[in-house]
Specification:
Shape: elongated
Distance between the termini: 144 Å
Strand order of the largest sheet: 1-2-3-4-5-6-7-8-9-10
Structural class: alpha+beta
Number of domains: 2
CATH class of the largest domain: Mainly Beta
Helix content: 10-25%
CATH architecture of the largest domain: Beta Barrel
CATH topology of the largest domain: Lipocalin
């Protein structure tokens, strides 16, 4: 073997060794890059900040606001009337006149989490034709009084009233004000709803006599639940002056 061949053999051998080393190092790098970390990343939970009261408000004030918005015994009293009711209605257009006898249906529905009840009435008014009415009734915890709105197909104005419950919780009285289109002024109306011992309810409405302005009973409706046995309401043919 001459000197030139020996040199070439040594060079080729060195090149092969270097190439093997380079390939091995490159493979190691690729394996290292593709291998996922052995330990999962640690996620630190974020604690939400505590609710802060608005400036100037104390905890006592917040409790008062929450109490005012929480349904209680008076709201429960109103919700007890939820359901369908059939009504026998007597209406007097003037004092000491015969009553106009008609029928109606009443639907009472609690709304807004039992804070209010809506009442929808459908019936007829004799020669006046079909009749529909709607009311919204609630109890204001903050003010300590019942509040109600009434609207119907006999006009475009709304009646607004406030009232109270009798100590025996049998009679709810609402005093309304309404702008009379005939007298062109605000007039007072009184409504009572009496819970009778036989499970019926009697609604009575008093308003001003157009001639004298004196208060008289304008309407009386005896309601019975439609799921209960029929109740025959007793109506008088005349009305009396309310005192």
């Amino acid at each position: 073997m001459n000197r030139t061949r020996i040199v070439c053999s040594i060079a080729l051998g060195s090149l092969a060794v270097c190439t093997s080393i380079l390939f091995a190092q490159d493979a190691k790098k690729q394996y290292t890059k593709s291998t996922p970390p052995t330990k999962p990343a640690v996620v630190t939970p974020v604690t939400p900040p505590e609710a802060q009261l608005p400036p100037g408000m104390t905890e006592e004030m917040m409790q008062d606001a929450m109490s005012a918005g929480t349904p209680g015994p008076m709201q429960a009293y109103l919700c007890e009337n939820a359901g369908e009711w059939a009504g026998a209605c007597s209406t007097w257009m003037a004092p000491n006149t015969p009553a106009m006898i008609t029928k109606s249906m009443l639907t009472v529905t609690p709304i807004l989490g039992g804070r209010f009840v809506q009442q929808q009435t459908k019936g007829d008014m004799g020669e006046w034709g079909p009749f529909e009415g709607f009311s919204l009734t609630g109890y204001d915890n903050a003010k300590g009084e019942f509040q109600a709105y009434w609207a119907d197909t006999m006009g475009t104005g709304m009646m607004y009233g406030t009232g109270e419950l009798s100590s025996d919780k049998k009679v709810l009285t609402i005093n309304y004000n309404y702008n009379c289109p005939i007298q062109k002024k605000s007039c007072a109306y009184k409504q009572t709803v009496t819970h009778n011992d036989n499970g019926t309810q009697t609604l009575r409405m008093w308003g001003p006599n157009l001639g004298t302005g004196e208060e008289y009973k304008m309407m009386e409706i005896v309601y019975a639940r439609t799921s209960a046995p029929a109740v025959h309401a007793e109506h008088t043919d005349s009305n009396h002056i309310a005192h």
